[in-house]
């Protein structure tokens, strides 16, 4: 019986549930829809969310297939799910880097551990880039020396690069015969989380190994999610679910618009660049990317300076609230109030937009 038949009959565990734990939730939704043939409404019912939320995730990963590493990773996962109902290989407790190039599905066995974090450390320093080509079984991290000559500083298994691209830790800077990647804002945040957890563990700050592993292998926690756990004087959440959803929706559009590696800082700079269609770097802009950029432009116009700067830093760049306060020259503890006001305006903006723009295609 195929995985699709399993779903139809309400039978055994879905194939997508047998994927390794490190596979992002958005990828699982995308594969449930494309490989297992489940409807968006059925997935929304199972996950307790609106169908438009699932639709955005499916559309986001379909657009991300313009990235060759992401496309290769999704094709491997898709093929594994369509092959049958046998359980997919579980991750082994070993580094993702393999000494043997003969493994047929390296991505399925991959474990994101010290190897991927070592790669992020290299990419986060200086002007290091990750280089990969279609016929290369491994990827290379290089950095220019004082004379401007590229020097190799690390060699990694291609599966590591595919997994990091799938988790949005790296982003494609240049396409062509040879692809080059740089660390993304999500990758930098993940690296900060891992280093912070390691320091806490070394100091004995009460974090056990399971907590450390959740921080390292789980999704990067945004400042919005941290604030959402806090309570106000009445005991209500400081940020309600609709505000968290608004922040996540903005972050999805920001990444889809390929703005996460752009060096612009302020909301006004982004508005001018988007209005003039002068985004720095390669303008590889398929229809989904262009539409996402238009939505970002409309949001920033609506929010204006101040509120727009706050959501860019905390929701899109995943910068901490205290760090954003310092950068913007605001008083201590004012940032979370401004962020809440900005998210309220953002949620209202999304309600005005309706759901017509969410239709796939």
* Sheet with most strands: 5 strands, antiparallel
Uncertain spans: 1-13, 85-111, 205-219, 356-361
Determine Rg (CA atoms, Å): 21 Å
What count of domains describes the coordinates? 3
Largest beta sheet: what is the strand line-up? 3-2-1-5-4
User: Total number of β-strand segments?
Assistant: 5
Q: With helices defined by DSSP (H or I, 4 residues minimum), what is the helix count?
A: 17
Main structural class: alpha+beta
> What share of the residues does DSSP label as strand, in percent?
5-15%
Give the CA-based shape.
globular
Spatial separation of the terminal alpha carbons? 32 Å
Fraction of residues in helix = 40-55%
Would you summarize the structure shown here?
The chain is an alpha+beta fold and 361 residues long.
Explained architecture:
With 361 residues, this protein is an alpha+beta fold. The chain has 3 domains: 3-82, Orthogonal Bundle (Chromosomal Replication Initiator Protein Dnaa, Chain: A), CATH 1.10.1750; 110-217, Arc Repressor Mutant, subunit A (Orthogonal Bundle), CATH 1.10.10; 223-358, no CATH class. 53% of the residues lie in helices and 8% in strands. It has 17 helices and 5 strands. Strands 3-2-1-5-4 form a 5-stranded antiparallel beta sheet. A hairpin with a 4-residue loop joins strand 4 and strand 5. The longest helix has 19 residues, at 185-203.
């Amino acid at each position: 019986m195929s995985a699709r038949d399993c779903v139809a009959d309400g039978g055994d565990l879905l194939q997508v549930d047998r994927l390794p734990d490190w596979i992002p939730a958005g990828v699982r939704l995308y594969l449930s829809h494309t490989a297992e043939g489940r409807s968006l409404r059925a997935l929304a019912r199972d996950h307790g969310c609106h169908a438009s939320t699932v639709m955005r995730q499916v559309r986001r990963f379909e657009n991300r297939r313009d990235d060759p590493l992401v496309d290769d990773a999704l094709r491997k996962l898709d093929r594994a799910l369509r092959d049958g109902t046998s359980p997919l290989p579980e991750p082994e407790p070993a580094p993702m880097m393999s000494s043997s190039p003969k493994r047929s599905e390296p991505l399925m066995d991959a474990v994101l551990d010290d190897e991927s974090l070592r790669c992020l450390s290299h990419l986060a320093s200086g002007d290091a880039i990750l280089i990969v080509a279609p016929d290369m079984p491994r990827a290379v991290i290089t950095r220019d020396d004082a004379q401007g000559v590229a020097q190799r500083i690390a060699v990694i298994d291609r599966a590591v690069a595919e997994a990091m691209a799938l988790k949005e830790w790296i982003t494609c800077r240049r396409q062509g015969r040879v692809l080059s990647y740089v660390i993304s804002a999500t990758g930098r945040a993940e690296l900060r989380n891992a280093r912070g957890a390691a320091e806490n563990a070394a100091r004995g700050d009460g974090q056990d190994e399971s907590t450390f592993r959740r921080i390292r292998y789980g999704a990067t926690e945004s400042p919005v999610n941290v604030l959402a756990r806090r309570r106000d004087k009445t005991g209500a959440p400081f940020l309600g679910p609709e505000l968290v959803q608004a922040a996540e929706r903005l972050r999805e559009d920001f990444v889809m618009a390929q703005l996460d590696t752009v060096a612009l800082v302020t909301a006004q700079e982004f508005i001018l660049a988007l209005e003039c269609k002068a985004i720095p770097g390669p303008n590889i802009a398929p229809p989904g990317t262009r539409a996402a950029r238009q939505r970002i432009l409309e949001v920033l116009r609506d929010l204006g300076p101040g509120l727009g700067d706050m959501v860019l830093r905390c929701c899109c760049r995943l910068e901490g609230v205290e760090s954003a306060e310092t950068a913007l020259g605001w008083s201590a503890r004012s940032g979370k109030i401004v962020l809440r006001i900005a998210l309220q305006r953002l949620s209202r903006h999304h309600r005005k937009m309706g759901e017509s723009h969410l239709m796939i295609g």
